[in-house]
Each structure stands twice: as structure tokens, then as C-alpha cells.
Amino acid sequence: MAKALKSNYGLIGTAVFLLYIMLYHPPLVSASLPIPVEGCPMAHCDPFMSDNNFMMPPLGSSIGTVWQKNSMGGEQQGSYYGLGCSSNTVVVACTYGSLSRPGLGQNLIVYDFDGNALWNSGPESSLNNIAYTSAPLFDADGNVYVADNIRIVKYSPAGTEIWRSNFPSPSAPISPVPTESGYIILGTISGYIYAYDMSDGSLLGSLLLKDNPSDSYYYQTRNTPAVVGDKIYISSHRSDDYKHGALFALRLDPSNQINPLQISWKYDFAGPSGASPLVVATPTETKIYFDGDNIQLDGSALALIYGISDIVGDYPDTSSLIFQKRAFGKPGRIVASFALDPRGGFWTYVGVSPWLQYRDSASGIAAANNNINVDALINDPDYIHLPMSAMSIVGTPTNPIMIVSAITTVAGGNQYVIAIDLVSKTLLWKVQTNGIGDTENTAGQFPILSKNGEQRVIFSTRNLGARAIGLLP
């Protein structure tokens, strides 16, 4: 019966997801170059950075590690703090890399449901070990887009290289994001924002984020841009003063051959930012939620959470503050991107603590009665467990489930990936991810593969390969 229900959900879930998109969001990309609506096909699952992927995870009384892969070059390096893997529900693509062990190659590996490595990016010269900073992007045809600090590459579903484009200014990339008009937006740590044509890899334009062209400083980002239509939102900080943060709104105009990327507005905040901006869009207004660490003179952080409104079609294009709230009642930073709750509101971490915090999207107020204590769910009296990954929201829009890692920083403590029912706030399952005496865990996201009505959660680990969680035989 369980498998039948999950099989039926494939059609029902897709229909619900499409209705949700029509009600709350404009189209993701153009009809000729869409991305999949299920599986989590890119960083944070969609261009809005919602971390929403409305597929059922594996459920049942016997959930565990179905396969683990750690023999190939990239797998031996792990994904460090990268998001790791993306999926189109049929295959999953994972990026790897390590600053301490470069040169192993195979920094992109594509797996099927059963863990077979279908193809990889080959030697280090094809895609280097900085690829871990950039999650792969799938389009609806199964092509895969991935970047390192030198180039962006498009591969066919069979692994054939379709095109590659070198960056004018090499720098560690942030994950690629598609626009409605069929371009890829790619941010870099060096402050350059690039727009590449998805069809042929040609560079439409680039923009170095600055207040004035003559300034010696620029604004750099470590977070994936959010995109609504052809509007781009990037949280950043100054290269000469990381405490000076700025949220940029850019507009992409492919018809403008001189300056296709232009700054619409900028909102200064107390930086830096530790999370990609989350956007919630309607036909008349886009709301952007983001964080600032608010670094103090003594070096401590008193993190803030911001809500910004961007009215669609206003001129001149401006922003207005909806709210500014303390993230928590003691010093601390935001260490993970927000996750949209499809019932309304969004989820955040509470610094480096066991708590997941729910916030109202209109006021930014945290509702304490909705918070979730991850350590209490793990129920291990010997160790304190903290959430430390992306918060992937799966299930259905009315009955969402969060998949997140739960780690302990103490050597020998058990590390887990867990599934939480966000309605009942109960633990659905926990799966240990580390061996005896090590602290192997994941900081990434949790895409899902599906085959014959069965689902598996795939993720890469920080130091050693990829894993699949599913129903055990």
C-alpha cells in the first residue's frame, strides 16, 4: 500500500506543485528552456532559493543507507561545505573538490537510482577541484551545467560536452541560476556577475558590483543569487570591509547589447550575509528575505533578519523595508539559507544551536511555539546535535517534511540525516552518516530520485563521496 500511495503521488504532487507555482510565483524560465519541477534540479531547488521540492521522501519503518560511493577521484575529496548534489528525479549530479587534496579529477559525477556512476567530468583539466562551490543545474532536457573557478560547462544527458566558456576574470563560482529568457546567472567571489546563454554558452554580459566605477573596492558574494523572471537579487559585502553588506537588485535585459546587466537598486545592511536571499513573488510584488551578521566592534555577531519589498513595474525601481529583526536573543551568525514553508513563513537556524526557528513572513516575528529542537528529536543523552546543512522541504505543500543534517562536533558522536514532519513536529526517521570515531556529515542539500514508485534521498558528504537513503530490503 505504501508504494502504491507514493507512486500515485508522482502525478498528484506534480499537479499540486504547478498550482502552487501559478498562485505564488511567476514562471521559472522560458517555455523553451524550463527546469524540472521536481527532484531539486539546482542550488536550493529553484531560482527563488526556496529549498522546496514537492516529492515524497522514503517513508517506513526500515529506512537506512541503501548505497554509498567513495572510490572515484571526486568522491575521495568530498563536497566540503558545498551544496553537493542536484537531481531531475531520474539521475543525480554531484560536484566535489577539496582545497587540501586537489588533482584527483572526476569532480562532477552523475549517478542513477541504484548508485551506478553513469559518467563523470574526467580529469582535473576538464573541471577542477573548485567545482564543489557550485551545485549543478539540470534543464528539462537532462543537460547539466556546472562551473569551477575557470569555466562553466554544459554536458548532455550522456555526459558529452556541449559547450564550455571561460570566465573573463577567473574566480570561485557560486551556483548557476536560470532566468526566464534562457540565460544562466553566475555570481563569483571576485564580485563579477555573468550572464551566459544556456543554448550556446556565449557570454551576454558581465557586471562588477561597485558603487562607482572608480572605486577601488567592489562587492563580493558567497551566496547563490535569487532570480524572479529577469530580476536578480544578490546579497554581498564590500571587499575592503566585510561588515558593510549590500543587497543588490539587478535587471537582465538581453536586448541591451551594451549593458545587459544593470543595477536597479541597492539596500545597505550590517553584513556580511551567510545565506542566499529567499524570494516570494506575486505578479505585483516580490518580497526578499535575507540576513546580515551585524558584526560588532569586538568581532561578535548579532545577526539580523531583513524583509524587503520590491514592487513590480514601479518607476523608478526602488525597494522598501518590511521588517528588520534580531535573529536570536544572543550573539550568533546565520549559517544556512532560509527555507520557505509552503504553508506560509520560513525556517531559519538559531545560530549554532539545536533549534530550527519558524518566522512569519509578514512581520519577521519568530513564533516560539513553532520552533523545533533537533537535539530533542535525536534523543542522544551523550551528545548535543545541531542542524548543519540546507533545510530541504519535501512532501506536499500542505504536509511539508524537512530533511536536514544533525551533527555533533565531538569526535565519536553519531552524525545523522533526519526527516521531520513539520505539521506534527515529529521525527519520521534518522539515518547515521558516520563511521566509528569519525565526524563525517553533510553540509549540502537533499535531492530525491524516484524509480518504480520508490524514492531515495541522495546527498554528498563533506569528506567522502555520496550516499543514498531509502527503504532497506
Automatic annotation (TrEMBL):
Pfam families from the UniProt entry: PQQ_2
Boundaries of every Pyrrolo-quinoline quinone repeat domain copy: 65-239
InterPro entries: PQQ_b-propeller_rpt (IPR018391), PQQ_rpt_dom (IPR002372), Quinoprotein_ADH-like_sf (IPR011047), WD40/YVTN_repeat-like_dom_sf (IPR015943)
PANTHER family hit by this protein: CELL SURFACE PROTEIN, OUTER MEMBRANE PROTEIN ASSEMBLY FACTOR BAMB
Annotated protein name in UniProt: Pyrrolo-quinoline quinone repeat domain-containing protein
Native source species: Candidatus Zambryskibacteria bacterium RIFCSPHIGHO2_02_FULL_43_37
Source organism phylogeny: Bacteria, Candidatus Zambryskiibacteriota
